[in-house]
Specification:
By secondary structure, the chain is of the alpha/beta class. The protein has 2 domains: 281 residues, FAD/NAD(P)-binding domain (3-Layer(bba) Sandwich); 194 residues, FAD/NAD(P)-binding domain. It has 13 helices and 23 strands. Strands 1, 2, 3, 4, 5, 6, 17, 18 and 21 form a 9-stranded mixed sheet that branches. A 5-stranded parallel sheet has the order 7-16-8-9-12. Strands 13-14-15 form a 3-stranded antiparallel sheet, with no helix packed on it. The chain is globular and about 70 Å long. The chain binds flavin-adenine dinucleotide.
Length: 501
Amino acid sequence: MDSTEPYRATGTGTPAGDFDVLIVGAGISGIGAAYHLTTQCPDRRFVVLESQAGFGGTWRTHRFPGIRSDSDLFTFGYRFKPWTGPPIATAEEILRYMGAVIDENGLAPHMHYGHTITGASWSSETNRWTVEAVRADTGETLQFTAGFLWMCQGYYRHDQGYTPEWPGMADFRGRIVHPQTWPDDLDLTDRRVVVIGSGATAATLVPAIAGRAAHVTMLQRSPTFFRTGRNAIAIADELRELQVDPAWIHEIVRKRILLDQARFTRRCMTEPDQVRDELLAAARELLGPDYDLARHFTPSYRPWRQRIAFIPDGDLFRAIRDGGASVVTDEIARFEADGIRTRSGELVPADIVVTATGFELAAMGDIPFAIDGQPLDFADTVTYRGMMFTGVPNLAWVFGYFRASWTLRADLVGDFVCRLLQHMQAKGLARVEPALRAEDHNMPVLPWIDPEDFNPGYLLRGMDRLPRRGDKPEWQHTQDYWTEKDAFPAIDLDDPVFVYR
Ligand SMILES: Cc1cc2nc3c(=O)[nH]c(=O)nc-3n(C[C@H](O)[C@H](O)[C@H](O)COP(=O)(O)OP(=O)(O)OC[C@H]3O[C@@H](n4cnc5c(N)ncnc54)[C@H](O)[C@@H]3O)c2cc1C
């Protein structure tokens, strides 16, 4: 089969094709993986299977008003494709950027939408994965085989978000919606809207609907840190004015942003009180001297233990100052017919409740895995650098950064996987899996992420389904771009950690 020839589907259970690499998911990671394969391993036959009806992943799934990135697109964009717009981008702009990567690199023939992967099993006899996928249009189950699985399925369920159960929800007379499944017909005009949550989604949604609804209340259990600033990067504007090549601008601005972020992260660790005071001072400036900042925007955790969302041009704070939005910081006691009763007894009136309460973690795309007929539980494995897993052959997962842009890591993993595939081809090897070395056997085996370091709810709720980590950099996802950008290219592929056959 030609590397760009799409597979031919002929019927249920029919082998749909054999590929060198099968990429799961067509979000920013999957499209990046396809690009890296095309450019670094051009002789490999590969296919991208995606359950949704098109590419985009997160940026296709989320359609709530105001949906935008909270990272800058110079670093959330790929290393190889210059970003030419304002740093914080809408989902539509991000989708256009991803579409351009597909078009410019001839990736479309490899991508197959409406294919949900429902099973993956490895055979040591053939050294291949057999992947089952259900086609949305025909309901057929197709079988693919592949030498390597590149998991780009993200980390959460796309079909539904996480909504906690509160007492009295059935009594509420209005509508309850989750931002992940935003209804097209939702009319907010003159409605009182309560948005439950305090994360990036709530912070985006509240100012976006504040002008339309009668009033928007952000109801949060506890406050979150936010950063504000102009949706612009001075050096980018200056270089554009000088008509510098966009590829150079991309590279220079990435370096600038990364340096600034590294300094900020370091300061969060070394002088958290000062950083907190600065964040609060910026909020104070927009919210005014009388606003109860201590109650609504002063978290108890130290900055950076949770992602700090960026509010471009302070729009959330402006919406509050202008009166279109307000914040209630309290616990929910129960829903009532006309709103939400808090623990302190206040009734927050609502016609519509939006539960911006997070995600449902999906470990490995909720795909049942097996190795030589034995079910595989990823929670029984130890991760090699947050991308491969002990005892799991020929598989890599793209799990990006939380504190820096996800895509920075998608590019690093892309380089690593391509180097590994080239290495195996050069040596005539068909199988690789990471294994603990003799010196690793007494290593403590810990949860995927240290909750002291980073603790969003969806990870804490699902940690028992995720692979484990050790206490050495090789055996964990360090969440540290600055170390990994040098460490990944230097990985010795002949290290005993890699067991080849
Ligand atoms: C609203 C929102 C804003 C965000 N903003 C930022 C940001 O600014 N910066 C940042 O770094 N991160 C951000 N994130 C995190 C974001 O999810 C990641 O950065 C990134 O988009 C993940 O890309 P991905 O391609 O790895 O996964 P996803 O975008 O989750 O895409 C995975 C794809 O795999 C498909 N898939 C999953 N399972 C299967 C299966 N079994 N069969 C077939 N297909 C499957 C899914 O349908 C999906 O299309 C944000 C997340 C959300 C929800």
